[in-house]
Amino acid sequence: MWGICSRMVKVGMAKPCGVVKPCYLVKPVSSSRITGRYLSHQKGLPSLPVPPLQQTCERYITALEPIVEVDELTHTKELLDDFQKPGGVGERLQRGLERRACNTENWLSEWWVQVAYLDYRLPVVVHSSPGLVLPCMHFSDKQGQIRFAAKLIAGVLDFKTMIDNETIPVEYLGGKPLCMNQYYEVLSSCRIPGVKRDAVVNHAKSSRPPQHITVVHNFQFFMLDVYNSDGTPLTADQLCVQLDRICSSSLQANTEPVGILTTQHRDAWGKTYINLIKDRTNKESVSAIQRSIFTVCLDGPMPQVPTNAHRSRAAVQMLHGGGSLWNSGNRWFDKTLQFIVGEDGTCGANYEHAPAEGPPIVALIDHVVEYTRKPDTVPTAMAPLPMPKKLHFNITPELKKDIEEAKKGMNVLAEDLDMRVIVFEHFGKNVPKAHKMSPDAFIQVALQLAYYRMYQQCCATYESASLRMFRLGRTDTIRSASGAAAAFVKAFDDPNKQNTEKVDLMEKAVKAHKAYTNLAISGQAIDRHLLGLKMQAAEEKISIPKVFKDTSFAKALHYRLSTSQVPSKTDCVMCFGPVVPDGYGVCYNPMNQHINFAVSSFNTCKETNAADLAHAVENALLDMRTLLEQTPPRAKL
Domain tally for the chain? Predict the structure, then answer.
């Protein structure tokens, strides 16, 4: 909820790291650049709590019950009893975490960015970076593409002005103010590859913040200044002129697609990166991309598909570009924000996940879409503008070989990913609300029912919960596969159960999910606490406790269902890949009268099928509504 699924399966199984090196991490906004309103707001937020050890251990056992075998659960209980012994390792690690919480703004945030993202070595494309699909825009040629891209850029710069002036309205959840730090991390930032660990830099906080964006067209990169000499942003008309110049000077895609290198495995890209920037021209070009405020990708065509598959193809375009023959080389996937504009009206974004969750990105997108819908202003006389600067690369035979390898790897990944975007048109938030149920909880219970019908078992399910109620908060895990959900899904298709009993079980499942959500957003869920205890063991250089090497722990972190609700004003949907080879990625945006779903799986896994799960989710939602409508409400006592 309110976030994007993080790669927690990798976090749980990650090798313990040594001492945290802050230089690798996304740092909070520098007070030298951002002051006043932002800082006073941030200081007023509470710190993330460290939950009680016994509470987390008890809730961990409860979370395991629907997803592990009885003998495994018995063994885990024994390990936990030993872990919690007075004076034992659990108490020692708990005290260490509590000391860390007293001495940091947020005991989790640096560890989380490090382990969940910067230490993560699979390609960011598909595995980590989400895509976002906007409704198809009303243009279908190069001039329409340029005109829309110009308005989009102007809209982002308009949002940037609110960031620079600290006038973004503070967001609230349940009447409580939320941390706004992520808004200050998404522009002018970029991931930097390393051989064993990456870094993130944010140039917005430098003494001379960037004044340019990067534009990619036909695999060629351009540096486009987006501010006039007097500091005012370029108008949409001025941006049109500049984008037209860029397109005219890059008509032929006859250059090596250097951007495809950013799709590599992170260790491979880290080694290639060292070779790439040995050349001075390359280093300057890469630096210009990294320093830019954001990137705009003016895409070429994509494969033709039937009309009913257009949104699924658009999701693929936003997520990975379609492979080396299409638009995967027309990207720099390390860039935090990439806006993608196709010639046929397909538009959206891709973002590198380390600096932020989904909501700040969606808020920016909502603002931009609203901005692009404003009527065009009356054109004014324009002063001559400097030519956008093409960024050149010198490609050695070794780099060319790396590019070819990256193409092959990207094509394998693109071929493997199955992505289905569906619009569930029968109802939206309106039906659960009419029955006094949380729409998010209702959808999550439907996902549990759909999965159970397909596999006759429950699985570890991840839904992201926002921790932004706390300073520098990111996410924790809502565990949707609860005991109450398991009881409901097992009873739903049982002909021996009465409808009234099924409704009662449904209500309990929905309430259990809502209750766990409330625990998670208030810092009392189990997953980040367990991660913190494991990290603390590494910090104190003591052997990792057996409870973290347990079969149950591995099962608890093997999320076959990795899900996230990302609501927005715009009729869009976010999408991401599964986090395990035999799993699904499910993102959804519930609107009032319909729900947008993006469901992904890997073709190499014969047990999973994105279309089948999407169909099962549709049926589960319809059947749950039918059950509610056919069961008369019970008399209130």
Answer: 2
| Dihedral sign from CA coordinates of 143, 145, 149, 152 | positive
Is 353 assigned a catalytic role?
A: yes
**Domain of 586?**
8-116+420-630
CATH of residue 479: 3.30.559.10
Tell me: do 377 and 515 sit in the same domain: no
How far the first Cα of the chain sits from its last, in Å, is: 34
CB contact at 8 A, 561 and 597? no
Tell me if the pTM is above 0.90.
yes
Q: What is the pLDDT of residue 35?
A: 53
pLDDT beyond 60 at 410: yes
Q: Please tell me whether residues 199 and 293 are part of one structural domain.
A: yes
Residues 223 and 288 sit within 8 Å (Cβ to Cβ): yes
Dist CA 100 CA 634 (whole Å): 51
- Going by pLDDT thresholds of 50, 70 and 90, the confidence category of residue 42 is confident
Residue owning tokens 């650049």? 33
156 with 283, same domain: the answer is yes
d(CA 256, CA 177): 48
User: If pLDDT is split at 50, 70 and 90, which confidence band does 322 have?
Assistant: very high
Please indicate, yes or no, whether residues 453 and 465 belong to a single structural domain of this protein. Answer: yes
Burial class (CB in 10 A: 0-12, 13-18, 19+), 91: middle
Domain holding 378: CATH number?
Answer: 3.30.559.70
Written in H, E and C, the secondary structure of 517-543 is: HHHHHCCCCCHHHHHHHHHHHHHCCCC
C-alpha Rg value of the chain to the nearest Å: 25
Boundary (domain end) residue, out of 388, 416, 444: 416
Last residue of a domain, one of 381, 416, 451: 416
Q: Tell me the β-bridge partners of 477.
A: 464
Cβ 3 vs Cβ 464: under 8 Å: yes
Catalytic residue among 353, 367, 529, 558: 353
Each residue's pLDDT tens digit, 541-594: 999 999 999 999 999 999 999 999 999 999 999 999 999 999 999 999 999 999
Domain-embedded: residue 240: yes
CA separation for the pair 144, 136 (Å, rounded) = 13
Same domain, 409 and 523: no
Indicate the residue type of 376: D
